[in-house]
Amino acid sequence: MDGAECDAVARWMADHVEGFRGPLTARKFDVGQSNPTYLLKAASGAYVLRRKPPGVLLKSAHAVDREFRVQRALAGSAVPVPEMLALCEDESVIGAMFFVMEHVAGRSFLDPTLPGLTVPERAAVLDEMNRVLAAIHDVDIGAAGLSDFGPEGNYYARQLSRWTKQYRASETDTVPHMDKLIAWLEAHLPPDDGLRTLVHGDYRIDNLLFAQDGTDMRAVLDWELSTIGHPFADLAGVLMQWQLPPGAEGRGLAGVDRAALGLPTDAEFVAAYCQRRGIDEISNLGFYVAFAFFRMAAILQGVKKRALDGNASNPDKALRLGGYVPRFAELGLEAAET
Hints:
The protein is of the alpha+beta class. It has helices at about 5-15, 65-75, 120-135, 155-170, 175-185, 230-240, 260, 265-275, 285-310, 315-320, 325-335; strands spanning about 25-30, 35-40, 45-50, 85-90, 100, 195-200, 210, 215-220, 225-230.
């Protein structure tokens, strides 16, 4: 945000955020590729602002109002979230809808191998990740006022349709593996089993904040893709991430000696989740993981398209991430086969 936008936000916060006192400065976080996020500092303390990106956007994308709503609904629950302070739907303030939330002090881990932690600490962090995932899916959506947060019906059928449309709308090149993966998913769509819970939509370790001096989770962030849907989508998303190569780009666990590091296997993580939620077993896990790869490929294609259109939060990184679309499609097909 430039100086004029900072001043506009400060004037708006003075009217809408209790206790706010300026002046205000803003620094953009360099993580994330969707909704630009800023650390705000003022005389009254630190805040976080999250806004829609500029430019022409895909329908239903970048719904910061939905992020605001779901996190406000989860206040005081077993799911840790920042306090939501105010939502601005008046786009004339800075040219886009935005919300302001509490700044949560904590540490984030970009790498699931958790370098720098001890073996017991690694095990505790991933067990806490498992606990909170189960807590998200155990939220009473009626009591939380979220029954209408997603449509009724087969979650995977509507998600496959939605993300296929999103992918086609942002397609820049023909990716044969992606076309093949879409066809496989359409042919193997499971029947609706009636499971309907809150889902985060992008549950991975770099979207979580942990205590600065411990392993307790302080906040689950980035709820842009949240909805009412099928809980195994979140679980499969975690497993999908772990199939990627380790390091700054992949942020996965492929080829890692998990036992030596104190990290659970996929099967152990799934078993702990099932125990917490009272589930005997999960069948058809290959479909769920294949779908997770497909959806992430569609998201990355959208990131690439925004970069080419000049609307990306971090253009260079966006183009680099967009280059992974074919690989994600390949991994999706591998998951489908296994």
